[in-house]
Amino acid sequence: MTDIKRLLAANRSEIAIRIFRSAHELGIRTVAIYSHEDRYALHRFKADEAYEIGKRGEPIQAYLDIDAIIKLAKSQDIDAIHPGYGFLSENPRFAQACADAGIIFVGPQVETLQQLGDKISARKTAEKAGVPVLGGSGGAIVDAEQGLKLAEQVGFPVILKASHGGGGRGMRVVRDAAAFEQAYEQARRESLTAFGSPDIFVERFIERAR
After folding, report:
1. Are strands 49-52 and 200-204 parallel, antiparallel or unpaired?
2. What gap in Å lies between CA 81 and CA 30, rounded to an integer?
């Protein structure tokens, strides 16, 4: 097993705190990043070291800036980066950037993220393998009008999902046509803000899945 001495959590709040707790139990020194707006956030003070990142007025974008995170990690001799979930956790470009910088990405391999980090791509991979999938769109929705037509074909209720999402963000359950446009715009904005991608797809929603 590779010896990790310095671990950076590319995340915030409770997610980062949990990473730090586990790292401390293993004797690993921890490094936090925080946006200006998060300068009083608890995760900053739970790490052994903490560094402000990003621009003022862009509190979420700070945690999505691959170049800035890698630059900081290299300057602070970081051995490994744990992305937590959400933000860059399913982004293959981030995993590749870590590899290119000689930094361990604590997560799936780049190839796995390329296939499964994008949920639309993951659906297609599953279909090719003969795995049953729920009815839904074969790609990202172009706009609310197209999305509504797809939803009507699938049948309500449907769920809108961020293709690059995680942690429950960028998801909305839509029970009828009247609520679709607003739900789509909300999911799209949330996905763009949290994951840097506006791609949303439709899937049939199972009320009481087992």
Report:
1. unpaired
2. 10
State the Rg of the chain over Cα.
19
Kindly list the structural domains of the chain, giving each domain's residue range(s) and its CATH number in brackets, ordered by start: 6-114 (3.40.50.20), 119-204 (3.30.1490.20)
Per DSSP, 112 falls in state H
pLDDT computed for residue 193 by the predictor:
83
Between CA 183 and CA 160 the distance in angstroms is 8
Separation of alpha carbons 80 and 98, rounded Å: 8
Helices (H), the chain: 13-25, 42-46, 66-75, 92-100, 110-116, 119-128, 144-154, 180-195
Predicted TM-score (pTM) of the model is 0.79
- What would the two tokens of residue 20 be? 């730090």
